Amino acid sequence: MAVRGLFIVVEGIDRSGKSTFVRALAARLGNSEIMSFPNRQTQIGSMINSYLTNSIHMSDEAIHLLFSANRWECKGLIEQTLNAGKNVILDRYAYSGVVYSAAKGLDLEWCMASDIGLLKPDIVLYLKLDPREAQLRGNFGEERYEYLDLQKKVSDNYDMLMGKINNCKVLDAALPTESLLELAELGSVDTTKALEKLW
Ligand code: NYM
Ligand code: MG
């Protein structure tokens, strides 16, 4: 069997530059698949998209579970891709699930429960940005959740959750992409160890 690929997650508040960074990272590493959560291409993802664009309403609990189900439906693909020797770079993962739903007032442990047993990434790169900076960036405010009060709570929750996990690297999202790539130091990640469970 081929040596497995690197499993990398990129997290951060809205407009923190995750998508740009993820593309640059994939180009730098080569042999990489980018996947984004929510994955809006599936039927579950299409419901999530309708919710985020305010065309349907749902309870906080129901949408939380849909976000989680959207990860579960992609678990097999992530595993197969890694085992085929390709790197998988995720633009958001279960950490987003927890910090956004908890920012709306849901219980943290309850939020974590639906993702128990998903795969744990080798490293989580947290692009930390002041929510007031993010607000000044283009297109802020287009979707549900993109308002300052909520983003501040999301940011606080990220600080708390990222402090609890043992595989997180915090990067200053105000830096240029080239610097972020240097700071990520992915050469030190050990891919000979087996994939573990998230939590
Ligand atoms: N989001 C994303 C959640 O609330 N829970 C989740 O589990 C995930 C994966 O979706 N505001 C929120 C965060 C974002 C929104 O994501 C859409 P993006 O990366 O802006 O397309
Ligand atoms: Mg967004």
Automatic annotation (TrEMBL):
Q: Which leading EC class covers this enzyme?
A: transferase
The cross-references to SUPFAM superfamilies, in alphabetical order and at most eight, read: P-loop containing nucleoside triphosphate hydrolases (SSF52540)
Q: Which domain of life is it from?
A: Eukaryota
Pathway assigned to this chain's UniProt record: Pyrimidine metabolism; dTTP biosynthesis
Ranges of residues in domain Thymidylate kinase-like: 10-180
Q: Name one GO biological process term.
A: dUDP biosynthetic process
Record keywords, A-Z = ATP-binding, Kinase, Nucleotide biosynthesis, Nucleotide-binding, Transferase
A Gene Ontology molecular function term for this protein is:
ATP binding
Cite the InterPro entries for this sequence. Answer: P-loop_NTPase, Thymidylate_kin-like_dom, Thymidylate_kin_CS, Thymidylate_kinase
GO CC field: cytosol; mitochondrion; nucleus
Q: What family classification does the UniProt entry report for this protein?
A: Belongs to the thymidylate kinase family.
Q: Which PANTHER family match?
A: THYMIDYLATE KINASE
Write the protein's name.
Thymidylate kinase
Q: Which organism is it from?
A: Blepharisma stoltei
